Amino acid sequence: MSHTLTGVIRHISATEKAGNTDHVKRSIVVETEGEHPDSVVVEAFNDKCKMLDGLAEGETVTIHFNLKAREWQGKWFQNVSLWKVEAQSDF
Fold it and tell me: What is the domain partition of the chain in residue ranges?
C-alpha cells in the first residue's frame, strides 16, 4: 500500500549496514505541518538511500512510502519504507 507525506526535513541519517547483511539503510525524519505537527521516521534501503543525497534539514519534501508489518519471534514490527522523494522545488 502506497502513501504520501509532505513536511519539513528534521534529520537525515548517514548510511549504515542493516543488521548482519550486505544491505544498507538510511532514515529521514519529516515533520508534518499544522496545528499538531507529527514527526515520522521513514527508512530508505539499498539503492533508495541515494535518493536522500542532496536533501537538507529544513527543506520541504513529499515522501512516497509503503507501510509494512511483519512478525518476528512473536512480536510485530512496522516498517515505513521510502520508494520516492520529491523536493519542494521539484513541483
Answer: 2-90
pTM of the model: 0.85
- The topology under which CATH files domain 2-90 is OB fold (Dihydrolipoamide Acetyltransferase, E2P) (2.40.50)
Q: What is the pLDDT of residues 5-56, one digit of tens each?
A: 999 999 999 999 977 888 999 999 999 988 999 999 999 999 999 999 999 9
Which regions of the chain does DSSP assign to beta strands (E)? 2-12, 16-17, 24-31, 39-45, 60-72, 75-87
Please check whether residue 23 is in contact with residue 75, taking contact to mean a CB–CB distance below 8 angstroms. no
